[in-house]
Amino acid sequence: MRVVVDAFGGDNAPFEIIKGAYLAHKSYNVSVTLTGDADIINKTVEENSFDFGDDFVVVDTKDVISMHDEPTTILKSHSGSSMGLAFNELVNDRADAFVSAGSTGAIVVGGTLIVKRIKGVKRPALAGMLPAPDGSHYMLMDMGANADCKPEMLAQFAIMADAYLKNVEGISNPKIGLLNIGTEETKGDQLHLDAYNLLKNSPVNFIGNIESREMPKGVCDAVITDGFTGNIALKLIEGTSMTLLKMIKSVFLKSIKNKLAAIMVKSDISSIKKTMDSSEIGGAPLLGVRKPVIKAHGSSDAKAIMNAIRQAISFSQNDVIGNISENLG
Amino acid sequence: MRVVVDAFGGDNAPFEIIKGAYLAHKSYNVSVTLTGDADIINKTVEENSFDFGDDFVVVDTKDVISMHDEPTTILKSHSGSSMGLAFNELVNDRADAFVSAGSTGAIVVGGTLIVKRIKGVKRPALAGMLPAPDGSHYMLMDMGANADCKPEMLAQFAIMADAYLKNVEGISNPKIGLLNIGTEETKGDQLHLDAYNLLKNSPVNFIGNIESREMPKGVCDAVITDGFTGNIALKLIEGTSMTLLKMIKSVFLKSIKNKLAAIMVKSDISSIKKTMDSSEIGGAPLLGVRKPVIKAHGSSDAKAIMNAIRQAISFSQNDVIGNISENLG
User: Both A12 and A104 in a single domain?
Assistant: First the structure.
């Protein structure tokens, strides 16, 4: 089992990525290939005594595709970037799974056009994993790969989510909901009205519309949505939580009395933050392509990368892709 | 200045609605018309010594349109409901403004087809007022009147928002953003790409795309969006805040030490809740119709109704509707 990791993708590249890959190697006994500037990678590995074992591979390139590059440049001018070469390792079967914290757009383009879609899949989609208050998590799919969706795409997202949750997470009959502006069948815009009708007749365990007010409670295993709404929802949960936690923090700093109170509850408040921290869960699998591709959060630290690699291993070892293929057929 | 209030709309009707109307009468010296079961209204007024003055009017009806009724029934089978008769008072010039905490759908249908659109308006929209952490607030429009939108509708929403913020809130040059999945001009689905282009050439102070992560911070005066996304966003902010506050509350109840800490910060935490409480701000104006219509939150208490009536007075006294008409022309 070998995972190829784009060592130069993400806000904290390369150090946190390399460290995360090392932690994953140590914890899960996985072989690692790193792509990116070999001088820097080797220097980092040596200086930090990261022992990757005998079958450690570094694929050298100075080029990096950034958030500001057009995603489609992964196919041509940036095909030799750290991400481009990581895709190269994956499609040439020199790696079983792919992890990158780099440009989401480039991962979606590379996944779709280099790794290629599973036969019958209209459009691959990113399945984000969001934390629920009870310490569990739920899937939000699509979280942003496809801004414009058709009802048939949403129906396929549900089938792919179902296959992933069953095979990777071991949920026997995942509850799947449609993100909508009311619980009634008659609610929503035309896209969601039509998607509802398709999902009603789908083989998945469709539990109906989910209102966004209920979503953060983790009321189902997968929330199906178009990539525009999914991306708005994902970032709004982040923004709302950050805003509220910042206000609470300012309360705790307001006076000596409040600072004292803060000390008394500090560890418990930290445990809330930990529960609601998506880096604990892993990255977002790109579902619908022929090999396991995991998009880690751009701000991933070593722990988040380690968790994304754990997820990539599980994605590869349980036949999600074969299962998606069967269920779509 | 007379406001007609649907005394039987909303979760806390009729008591909180009647009380809120009384508080508004007392605070703002506004004449009030209440619609609904006259026996219950008069009994409530008497028992609580709500002195509405000499020009108090009650329009009697036993019928109420509920959340479960088809919104279009406001035009026929429920035209004689408390909401229907309130619209009747408004369009027959026996009231200057309308407030209801009842069915949003029925208010939109009644506003559009009984009160009627301002000439040139494609579709009226609900302008929600959301609290910002600094104690100010911002507008989210459309928050759910139109699930399916066209780019031209979003451009009109911006013009209507601009007129309201200038005239009612006295903001001289409101900053108006488009809710989107990236700040760049090239981001979003086709609807938002096209809307961006229209807004760029609009007379309003368009500051570009706003990511949902930034929205809760109150980075602009009005966030323009389609009613589907707006409704998802509105309820997601509510759901995320509720979930997080519940988790924090459970921390404060966890041990005697934590309970003690809770006592120490209680009033400051309450002031956060008050800052983030949308009932402090008022209701959502339905912009684009010929007379002032305010939709109060379904869970409105007396204070929220009082604030919605204050807003209705200001909406009526400042020529928002004339201004919208001019700017669209």
Answer: yes
Rg (CA), chain B: 20
Mean pLDDT along residues A56-74: 96
- CATH number for the domain that contains residue A295: 3.40.718.10
Query: Contact B287/B125 with Cβ under 8 angstroms?
Result: yes
Render the burial of B313-327: b for 16+ CB within 10 Å, e for the rest. Answer: bbbbebebbebbbeb
Round to whole Å and give the CA distance between A262 and A195.
47
The 3-state DSSP class for residue A298 equals coil
- Nearest C-alpha of chain A: how many angstroms from B267? 10
Please give the ipTM for the structure prediction: 0.91
CA closest to B191 among chain A residues: A148
Q: What is the pLDDT of residues B247-304, one digit of tens each?
A: 888 888 888 988 888 888 888 888 888 777 766 677 999 999 999 999 999 999 999 9
Question: pLDDT of A132-142, one tens digit each?
Answer: 988 889 999 99
Q: Which residue has the tokens 């969601």?
A: A192
**Secondary structure (DSSP) of B173-242:** S-EEEEEESSSSTT-S-HHHHHHHHHHHTSSSEEEEEEETTTGGG--SSEEE--HHHHHHHHHHHHHHHH
Judging by beta carbons within 10 Å of its beta carbon (0-12, 13-18, 19+), is residue A221 exposed, middle or buried? buried
For residues A59 and A172, membership in a common domain is answered with no
Across the interface, which of B216, B247, B248 has its CB nearest the CB of A239? B216
Based on the domain organization, do A238 and A142 belong to the same domain?
yes
Cβ within 8 Å, pair A272-B251? yes
The reply to whether A324 and A182 lie within a common domain is no
The span from the CA of A63 to the CA of B64, in Å, is: 67
User: Using CB atoms, which residue from A190, A244, A251 is nearest to B241?
Assistant: A244
Q: Do B188 and A147 make contact, defined as CB atoms within 8 angstroms? A: yes
pTM for this prediction: 0.93
Residue B102 maps to a domain = yes
Of A212, A227, A235, the CB nearest to B213: A235
Chain A's closest residue to B238, CA to CA, is A213
Residue A289 DSSP code: B
> pLDDT, tens digit, for every residue of B16-71?
999 999 999 999 999 999 999 999 999 999 999 999 999 999 999 999 999 899 99
3-state secondary structure of A130: strand
The alpha-carbon gap from B289 to the nearest alpha carbon of chain A, in Å, equals 22
Contact B246, B273 (CB under 8 A): no
Dihedral sign for Cα atoms in the order A227, A229, A230, A231? positive
Using DSSP's 3-state secondary structure scheme, residue A108 falls into helix
Contact at CB, A229 and B231, closer than 8 angstroms:
no
Domain carrying residue A146 = 127-280
- What's the whole-number mean pLDDT along residues A105-131? 96
Six-digit token pair at B306? 């009082």
User: E strands within B78-124?
Assistant: 97-100
CB-CB contact of A286 with A158 (8 Å): no
The answer to whether residues A328 and A299 belong to one domain is yes
d(CA A282, CA A117): 23
Judged by average pLDDT, the poorest of A97-111, A173-187, B92-106, B241-255 is B241-255
CA distance B69 to A308: 48
Given a contact cutoff of 8 angstroms between Cβ atoms, the answer to whether A17 and A45 are in contact is no
Contact A278, A132 (CB under 8 A): no
Q: Is B329 a residue whose pLDDT tops 90?
A: no
> Coil, strand or helix: which one is B141?
strand
